[in-house]
């Protein structure tokens, strides 16, 4: 199972792309600005897009992706999300004012995109992989996702979240966990802001990791631009018992 980090930053700037993760070549977790670095041929292979929540940095390039390959789509691209997320996409993005509604184009009977509601703890089987949705705690309703292949190798993605129990309970129910991509958006000095915006800091993440029975490779995402070094140093100090990587756009991981 190949995991390609198209985007993982908490902001924009040279080399920074917002959240989007490509699983193998056909599944996207979120559709932030990292999608824009895909070649057209790569975009055409994407068949399933799992959205964690409705914030712009996680959905911004979904409209451009579908528009760019519109004429080459033979079967609808399947977009999954919580009811609140799907509702936000319909009302505020694909509403014929901000962007055309591709769930009705070229016509309602044969659209190029289809919306699918997914609930926490629900699993979707795609070829030889299973994608499980997990509730997390963010300022809007959000999900994390657990991807498991036929060999039992497992990659988990937290989405945006702060302290919670649901994510850790779901991860502890797994027989094993190889890799966990989890956010730490602010340094410890911004803990009050982290609580308000519902993002982890190194200290709050370290406390929650005590709930986890597995020892996965940690991929840290969503670091705010300009604060990356500070956050990284704090993470390595409080999580020195873990294999830990502060990832960047363009990284790839083979979960084998």
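^ structure tokens above, recovered residues below v
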């Amino acid at each position: 199972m190949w995991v390609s980090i198209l985007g993982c930053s908490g902001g924009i700037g040279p080399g920074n792309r917002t959240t989007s993760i490509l699983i193998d070549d056909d599944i996207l977790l979120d559709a932030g600005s990292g999608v824009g670095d895909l070649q057209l041929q790569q975009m055409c292979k994407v068949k399933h897009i799992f959205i964690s929540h409705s914030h712009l940095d996680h959905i911004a390039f979904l409209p451009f992706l579908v528009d760019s390959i519109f004429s080459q789509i033979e079967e609808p691209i399947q977009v999954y999300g919580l009811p609140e997320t799907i509702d936000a996409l319909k009302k505020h993005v694909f509403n014929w004012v901000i962007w055309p509604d591709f769930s009705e184009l070229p016509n309602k009977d044969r659209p190029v995109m289809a919306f699918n509601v997914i609930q926490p703890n629900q699993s979707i089987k795609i070829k030889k992989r299973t994608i499980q949705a997990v509730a997390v705690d963010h300022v809007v309703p959000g999900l994390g996702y657990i991807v498991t292949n036929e060999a039992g190798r497992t990659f988990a993605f937290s989405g945006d979240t702060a302290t919670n129990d649901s994510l850790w309970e779901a991860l502890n129910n797994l027989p094993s966990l190889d890799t966990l991509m989890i956010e730490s958006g602010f340094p410890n000095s911004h803990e009050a802001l982290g609580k308000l915006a519902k993002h982890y800091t190194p200290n709050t993440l370290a406390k929650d990791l005590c709930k986890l029975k597995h020892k996965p490779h940690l991929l840290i995402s969503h670091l705010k631009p300009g604060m990356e070094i500070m956050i990284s140093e704090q993470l390595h100090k409080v999580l020195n018992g873990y294999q830990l990587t502060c990832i960047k756009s363009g990284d790839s991981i083979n979960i084998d």
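The two ends are 7 Å apart (CA to CA).
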